[in-house]
Amino acid sequence: MGEKKFVFSNKVKAKKWLVSFENDLNSITQELIQYCPKLYHYNVSLSLNIGFPEQKRMRDSLDFMMDRYWKLYNTSQDISIGREINGMYAVISQQLLFYKQVLGRNSRNQNLLNQAKIDFKHIKYLRNDIDSLFDVDKTLKCLKEVQIKPTENLSEIYLRIA
């Protein structure tokens, strides 16, 4: 995804923007992670309709995603937040699509099929929220466009979003 640097006119505006960014990021991340129990439920409910290797691979993928989610909030290392959120979204949407297709082949689980369709639609809407959150070019001026005076200390006035 790359790295972008942005300049703020003062520290108050920078802190205000950063707080709103963190709040939006936390709400989107919480909304994303709430799909994991649903995916585990689909995995268990459809155990007779999908093969064991496929079922195990999907559970392992969810377990890995949950580990990454934990590390996102509980590590001191630098983590590319955008890449992690996009990875979580990709796993969730891929699995929801798979379960929707499996349920579409079986007429006995119409309630689960309807729920999977609704979940898939909601996750597509969540994609728009993720894109708008990380499209900070609209709200901030990029460092390339702003001339920095030699007297300014660059390390204090830029924000890195990867």
Quick recap:
Helix content is 66%, strand content 6%. It has 162 residues and is mainly α.
CATH class division: Mainly Alpha
The total tally of domains equals: 1
Give helix % range: 55-70%
Number of beta-strand segments: 3
Element pattern in H and E: EHHHHHEE
Give the termini separation: 7 Å
Summarize the main sheet. 3 strands, antiparallel
Helical region count?
5
Biggest sheet strand order reads 2-1-3
Tertiary shape: elongated
Mean pLDDT: 81
Gross CATH architecture: Up-down Bundle
Provide the low-confidence segments as ranges: 141-148, 153-162
Radius of gyration: 20 Å
Strand proportion, as a percent range, falls in 5-15%
What does this structure look like?
The chain is built from 5 helices and 3 strands. It is mainly alpha-helical. It has one domain: Butyryl-CoA Dehydrogenase, subunit A, domain 3 (Up-down Bundle), CATH 1.20.140. The longest helix is centred in the middle third of the chain and has 25 residues, at 81-105. The relative contact order is 0.19.
Top keywords for this entry?
elongated; 162 residues; 5 helices; Butyryl-CoA Dehydrogenase, subunit A, domain 3; three-stranded antiparallel β-sheet; 6% strand; mainly alpha
Write the layout of secondary structure elements.
Layout: E1 4-7, H1 11-33, H2 35-45, H3 52-74, H4 81-105, H5 110-134, E2 141-142, E3 158-161
Antiparallel strand pairs: 1-2, 1-3
Helix pairs in contact: 1-5, 2-3, 2-4, 3-4, 4-5
